[in-house]
Amino acid sequence: MKSQHLLIVLFGASLYWMYRLYEPFLLTMLIAALLAISTANIQCYFTALTKSRFTGSLLTTFLLAILFFVPLGYFLANFTIKLNNLDPDILAKIDYSLRELIANPPSFLLFLKPYLVGLIKDLQIGDLASKALSYAGTIGSYSAGYLKNALMVIVFYFFAQFNGDAIIGFVKKVVKLPEDDNQLLTYELSSVMSTVFYSILATAMFEGALFGVAVSFMGYNGILFGIMYGFASLIPVVGGALMWLPFAVYEYSLGNTGAAIFIAVYSVVMISIIADTFIKPVIIKEINVRFIKSSVKLNELVIFFAIIAGLATFGFWGMILGPAITSFFLALLKLVEAKSVTV
Questions:
Q1: pTM here?
Q2: Distance between CA atoms of residues 252 and 262, nearest Å
Q3: Domain end position, chosen among 130, 150, 176
Q4: Which of 157, 205, 291, 312 has the highest count of CB atoms within 10 angstroms of its CB?
């Protein structure tokens, strides 16, 4: 056997066992790498400021943990505690109010009655109280799993930031693409991922803050519910309704009709229409121009469906993976187009 053939066999065997060894961490490592690509400009800023790549990577990792993981950990911990202290009487009031509202809706909601009667018939809100402890246990175990996963993402993220140049240089040597093609793929992917990541984070924080301020004036924990609304808003179309609708129903069940109408109208008009429809595109444009300084023209409809597909396929992390896979595919198409033109 020639030495080259032996080397190929040994490399294939080692690659297989490396895959088996790191299989449980592959998705975590991919998420960390994509986040590192998305925030590379922040790492470069901190590195230039501190004159140390290690310190710059450490500061970027700390910032990511504070902005992204701490709020979700805070939400999961508080939500578990609230489920443990769930009051069955409140659920009974909500159940009664919902059935009463659907049985005798106001005139402007009469068209919804045929659709909601069957739904409420199968809905057993009272069962939630008896199952609250099991739900709390499930969410508690999920919280522990999430925090463990988040810790692994942060660790891999730091190493991806600190060793990013060496990793990219090694990949370039192995792939052996022309330098122009390497730059095109790297530029397209990093620009799109940075814009998507920053816009998702900025709009979630902005809309969460709007909702948190509103409910804090109603006597609720504005920080907790603002975080919940921010993460719910990541789900396209129905995200915001997952938060304001239960609030409106709860206030209505307590007899606070004015508060229920306020939170519904405020959320639809102020957040869904004004903030999401008119202010969000401005935020994305400003991020793209001021921070990314990219000439990449994002098609918001493509990104919209990429996030939906990512969430449906990969769950929570799909909001990162969906746009990443889509943007990489579009970058490859652009590369193929450029090659065909030159030919």
A1: 0.70
A2: 11
A3: 176
A4: 157
